[in-house]
Amino acid sequence: MTDFDLTQPETHSISELANALQSKSISSMELTQLYLDRAEQLDSKINAFTSFTKEAALATAQQADAKISDGNNNFATGIPIAHKDLFCTLEGNTTCASKFLENYQSPFESTVTQKTNELCLPMLGKLNMDEFAMGSSTENSFFGPTKNPWHLDYVPGGSSGGSAAAVAASLTPWSTGTDTGGSIRQPAAFCGISGIKPTYGRVSRWGMVAFASSLDQAGPMGKRVEDIAHLLNIISGFDAKDSTSSQQATEDYNAGLAQDISGMTIGLPKEYFSDQLDSNIATAIDAAKSELIKAGANFVEISLPSTDAAIAAYYVIASAEASTNLSRFDGVRFGHRSDKTEDLESLYKHSRAEGFGEEVKRRILTGTFALSAGYYDAYYLKAQKVRRLVLNEFKVALKNVDAILTPITPTPAFQLGQKQDPVTMYQNDIFSITANLAGLPALALPCGFAEGLPVGFQLLGDHFTESRLLNIGHQYQQLTAHHLARPTALV
Amino acid sequence: MEWQSVIGLEIHVQLSTKSKLFSGASTQYGAEPNTQTCQIDLGLPGVLPVVNEESVRLAAILGHGINATVAPYSAFDRKNYFYPDSPKGYQTSQFAYPIVHDGYIDIQSTSGETLRVTIIRAHLEEDAGKSVHEGQKGYTGIDLNRAGTPLLEIVTAPDIRNAKDAVEVMRQLHMLVRYLQVSDGNMQEGSFRCDANISVMPKGASEYGTRAEIKNLNSFRFVEKAINYEIERQIDVIESGGTVVQETRLYDSENDETRSMRGKEEANDYRYFPCPDLCPIVLSPEWIESIRQQMPVLPAEKANDYISNYSLSDEDALQIAQSRETSKFFEAMMAILPSDAGKIAANWLQGEMAAMLNKEDIGIEESKISSDALVLLIERIRDNTISSKMAKGVFEAIWNGEGTADEVIAARGLKQISDTSVIETAVDDIMAANMPQVEQYRAGKDKVKGFFVGQIMKQFKGQANPAVVDQIVTTKLKGE
Description:
The complex is a heterodimer of chains A (491) and B (480). Chain A has 491 residues and is an alpha/beta fold. Chain A has a domain at 9-261 and 410-484: Amidase signature (AS) domain (Amidase signature (AS) enzymes), CATH 3.90.1300.10. Chain A is built from 15 helices and 11 strands. In chain A, helix 2 runs antiparallel to helix 3 (54-70) and helix 9 crosses helix 11 (358-371). Chain B has 480 residues and is an alpha+beta fold. Chain B has 3 domains: 3-287, no CATH class; 299-408; 420-477, Arc Repressor Mutant, subunit A, CATH 1.10.10.410. Chain B is built from 16 helices and 16 strands. Chain B has helices at residues 39-42, 53-65, 163-179, 220-239, 285-293, 299-310, 314-321, 324-334, 342-360, 371-382, 388-399, 405-412, 420-433, 435-442, 448-459, 466-477; strands spanning 3-14, 69-70, 73-74, 77-80, 90-93, 100-108, 114-126, 130-132, 141-143, 150-156, 192-202, 212-217, 247-252, 257-263, 273-274, 281-282. Chain B has a 9-stranded mixed β-sheet. In chain B, strands 5-4-15 form a 3-stranded antiparallel β-sheet, with no helix packed on it. Chain B starts with a strand and ends with a helix. Chains A and B meet through helix 9 of A and loops of B.
């Protein structure tokens, strides 16, 4: 291991931070303070945070140091973290980047943050996002857009844009995100970091404000595959409070990282490599394939014919679920209540009209329409059939391959304000939504640059094969250095 | 024209679980507003529901009780509508796949025939909270204590033809849910309430008329009155040239009328769709069968046994059979008593016992007289040790802890005198002292016999066996 550099903790892996803490080269108080100072200095440019929880972070750091002194600690105890602002936390506000919840304080803790709290991971703050996780650019935030640390005029992706930008800019060693249609992987690709959307049901949804319940899945984001494997170890597992969480035993996701991947077969679905794909991304992915071939992997072409229909199906299902998930935001019990309230109907209408942003309203209306009498069969039911087809095609393909490699986005990060048309914006999700429809795990990895902006690819696998994906990803990162590149735009 | 009314019922039964359908909050009735709620009932951001397994078990029990299929696969849907007492903006209910379907119950119809009423389905759903308009300084208060309470909604086919039969269907189901202990059936507290769908058509027609739904009928009396009012109203509308509109109506019990709540055109589009937060309820055939195996003998079957084994009247048999505790008590007695004592045992349970339980406001399981103790008392009546009349006093004494029947009889010197020679001597003496009355009797004034019986009973302080006295007096007066 390299010597620990106190002035540049951000250059170190999670393992190195853990070792430094345990060998007392640095205390959790010092480490936490370093990150808080760095975030204070840089976040005015990036806007990755919706709020900081400085005092609570330092209090947790103090507890962590005591635990480490007593030998009462776990591997990650004392390493600071930041959470996407749709995990309910007792500390600070839980806003979902919405005006509706601008001042909302949750009276309970999400399972994900409960787990990191139990290990005494100081929470630096809450991370910016598209309002209620609806968006692909973090421009739909009541607290203003997050900027891409690689180029401040560009978007960081979304909806977990704050989570990706904060890691890329080293404002936090790692972070949590959520992925409903690519919201971990797409910002990871745009910001040049690693992130995994686990199998649906692997991580509890309790306390994660729902966008589309059947698609939402929380996951870890960090610089290295080995870093996110550590965080996945912490946050995954069955939760009796979430009926859709899986009882399947969890694994030590770091245990198999070093395994040889030679002989593994990786599928390349031809539908994902069309002319629409940016040539720089295509070139970067070709280079990644070469590296994986060097590591002993074989590539075969496969076909997933329903990919084209998936985007429409996704936006019907996600919007349908969102339209009813967001009905509870009615101004009656919590959150924004309009001053213009005169009677019950005006309470609902004004509170929701004022509290929700444009994109959220668009999805509520789309979803309400899709579920309406007379349209249900044509939209919702048909979308469910497409979803079943997508899953079946993946299941068939995954009988013959160990993993599937695809691009995450058709293009690199775009400029802030560039994509105004919602349909163009939705099409940006074409490669990422299928994993959510099928409930499959998908690992995003950086693989180079397109005109100075990071690009990435993803590895998809069968349900509960996170370990294998992480193994391939880690082996890839042993041969490449894209994940270690640091944005220079900030300095 | 002659009209035929057609009625179907939707009965909401609150299941007697300790906690709510999707949360751990208590279902206790009558607490301070919003004290029986948790984050889940309040519908806060980030919460998720988890199905209460006891509610599934209770639904399965009732399913077997109404001769229905307990579904191996059922699922929850969201019924979307905005209302302040519906905290999530939707009600979680079973729409496409109910947990119970295709059952029936048999009732005694007013026509004198047995009427088989089809139960189309029974599904699980959560109750709403309530809005409080009084004492809120111009605001509306929301009490979510009831929100999330588990309900089973039982839906009958439109097989019912008049209000009295509708009440009988409701009574049968009410008895059944209490007997099976799936609900306390408390109608004042809203644990058992009914919506009625009513239409009328010309007698002999094959196509039903347009129906109106009357919501939230919470007593048997209101069900009957509301249905009768609504039938008359619809007939009036048609006969005066109008048409019945499909709508939801409310019954106003003070004015005994139904009023329109909302019409079809104002009806909500509930946008039902499968709740993505809950997995389908999958029940194995083994589990469903094990619940069936544990089912108690149902009241109707039990009553038939009582009628054939102990010659009870239909009414007595049903009365006893429909309470699990009373029938248990009765059967414990009949395990000792001979079968020809069934009638007297039933009389005592329905008479003195019921009155005493009523007076003390307790259930038979808390009775201060055990089944064995009551058996002993009945045996003393049957062997003529005491009269039925004397037995009432003995019953009270046993209840008050004065000992067994025998102990009370001994302590009070209550032994009945059945020795004919003793009674004959006494009758001879009294007749000798009252010759004019003897003459009157023999001249045809039968009523005078009562005078002699009274005198004898007085002389023996009520302890003479009345049957024996009556027989001796009659014989001697007639001079036979």
